[in-house]
Structure formats: structure tokens, C-alpha cells
Amino acid sequence: MATITLPAGLLAREVYREDASAIMTLANQADMAEIGQGDTTVEDVYELWDKEKVDLTRNACAITTSGEIIGYTGVAVTRQGIMLDVHTNVHPAYQHLPIASYLLQFANERTLALLAAYPETPHRLYSWSFIPTKTAVLVEDGFTIEESDYEMEIILDQEPEAPRPLSGIIIRPFVQGQEEEAVYAVIAEAFPDIDGKPYKAYADWYENVFVKTKSFDPSMLYVAVAGTQLVGTISCRIYPENAEGFIWQVAIRRAWRQQGIAQQLLRTAFSTYYQRGMRRILLTVNATNATGAHQLYTSVGMHKYVQFDSLAKVF
Hints:
It is built from ten helices and 13 strands. By secondary structure, it is α+β, with helices and mostly antiparallel strands.
């Protein structure tokens, strides 16, 4: 395959942490051009870099013209394979140039180098796309769509409906340092009903939630308790700089479903978000989810905002 080169006037360089704001802007420009709204924050960029330990010097690339970043990509080794940074983008005004091809060439080369250095890593390059144009570019490069999800939203332009009491059920904040394993047990029972796959190990879940994810707020992890048994949970992330929140995980034990618990957990979260000044609340749900999740989220006022795809390429 021929080596792709950049047109005159464009420069490829390594990435610096100081570029986070420009990469945020680039991501939002790409989203605005296609779906009319950009949600990326600078904290999102930093969080992914830090969480996945992206080596910006060797494994990330910025394309610039006259000092402006108009293209970006990065890769990192994870337990699932090599991650292609979800903020990989090309400025809409320059998409007619071979910038995306150059960035994917860089990502593929670095993927091969990382797989050689870490041979135990699953031999796949994976990422996500919120916009059809980006999905098409990745598919053309050899990626396949593994699954699709919907991002749903609700705008809290007025005080949301208060949580309703449930007979025999108490909804309260979880007790940090005491109930992590009980929360995990609920999630580990519930989530395989979505995709049929065993849930991740407790240590991996704990690290991802409590250690790596800075936007997670432990004060907004709520549990539903029946007697002494924890039967449901909801965990939330916060983005106060954008007045936004993200419902991260909602899980109910099988024997306790269809009793309104999930609705009241959601209403509890919405009320707290509203009190804290966060007005736009998002969540994601698998497009083929057969647990009734779509109907649940619609019942509390949420609606589909955009579809995003999970893609991977095998090496």
C-alpha cells in the first residue's frame, strides 16, 4: 500500500497536553457540522488521555496549518486491544484533503508497533463514532461495526417530577467504603442480560469507576434497598462546566424488575442534577437492548438524541 503524505502547508507533529482545548474544539466542530451540536469538553479529552495512559509523544499525532490543529488521532494499549481515541477528527473545512487517511495510517502503524511490544494484547484496533461520516471513513479503512447504541437526553428546563415512594423500597445514597461490592453484584447480574456476555471482574469495575473516571461523582451513586438487600443502583457522572450530567449505569436485580425501581432511581438522579444546576442529562443504551430500557427512559421524559457505533479492526 502506498504511503500517504500530507499536502504542502500541512504539518504533522506530536501532541502536547496544552493541545487539549484545541482538540476539544476540533471534535465539536466536526460534530456541529454533521449533527448540529458538540458535547466534548476539555475535561473529556484529559480524562481519556489519563484514563488510558495515552503516550502523546509517540502514540498521538496532530495535523496543523498555520499553527491551528485541523486533525488529531491517538492510540493506547488497553485490556480490550488498542484503543483509537474517540476524539480522532478532521476539521470539516479540510475533509476533502487526505488528512483522515494520513491519521489512520499513523494509527495503524502505531498499533502494529504496540502489538509487537505487547503481544498479549488482543490484536484489534477499536473506537467509537457519533457521526456517519466518521463511521464511513473507519469502515473504508477496514473497521466493522460491532454494535450500535443510542444516546438519549432530557433537558431539565423546569424542576423534574419528584421521586415517588415505593412500598418496601428505600432509595438512598450508597455508603462509600461499605457497599461497593454489593453495588457491583447488582450490576454484574443485570448487565449480561443486555449483551449476553459475562460482566467484567470486580477489580476492573472498581478501578474504572472509582479510580480512573474523574467525572464520576460518588455522591450521585444511589441504591435501592429492600430490607437488608441491595436490589438496584444508578451511578452518575457530572460535567458542571457544561451544566450537563451523564447517567452511567442503571441496574436492577432480575427478581425486582417491573416494580418501578429504575424509574424512581432516575427521578432521584434528575432531581439532584437539577438542584446542582445541571440541565442537560444524557445516557447511552444499546440499540438492540431487549430489557425494556428504551421504554423505561422514554417513560421519564428522555428521547433519542444520536446514534453512535462501536467499531473494531482485527490485526
